[in-house]
Amino acid sequence: MTASVHIVGPQFSTFVRSVQLCCEEKSIPYTLGAEAGGRPLAIHSPEHYALHPFGKVPILLHGERRLIETPSICRYLDAAFDGPALQPAEAWARAQTDQWTGVLAGYVDQALVRRYLLEFVFPKGEGGAIREDAVAEARPGVDRVLALLERQLDEGEHLVGDDFTIADAIAAPMLDYLAGLPAAEELFAETPRLVTYIERLRGRPAARRVLVAPDLGRD
Ligand SMILES: N[C@@H](CCC(=O)N[C@@H](CS)C(=O)NCC(=O)O)C(=O)O
How far apart are CA 63 and CA 2, in angstroms? Predict the structure, then answer.
């Protein structure tokens, strides 16, 4: 099996960044980009659907192996490669990590990214305007999720206890984007632990390479 992996997807994607963070945290050699097998891969092309039946990214390529779904990819990288463990060994803490990984990649992604953030990043209003009604409609869901994360951070420095896990790798890119919005100060006004947590995540050497640099120039 080859020592390096390829992450298929654009670097701006939150889920691609989560997989990239796992590689960086574990020092796994990787390449990243919207290509596969040395050829550009157009989103939603037949070639894309051949690699991912739902036409999403990321897709992990490791030698002959192909894997989809960010939580599964992160768990695989953690299990198959050396480097610092990104999941607790103890059964209950591991189950909590799995739980949060699923919650983040599902409900939290929907509320923060799909329903809210994407309204700012890819505005769908007339003339490319932000749809203020869609933003207002999505906002209660954002507030609920941020309050939930704030409560969870009462228990430790990261989402599951004190150590960085794949749950944090999934949370980091979406929270980083959210914290970059003009409305961030108001969004996070009631969640001081979350603000500190985002700064903690952003300060990790791996995160500095993934969240800040839009293009690492990797090929
Ligand atoms: N359940 C998937 C979700 C992946 C996903 O939604 N990726 C987004 C990019 S962050 C995507 O592929 N968007 C393109 C599309 O929906 O067509 C996972 O965990 O990897």
Answer: 6
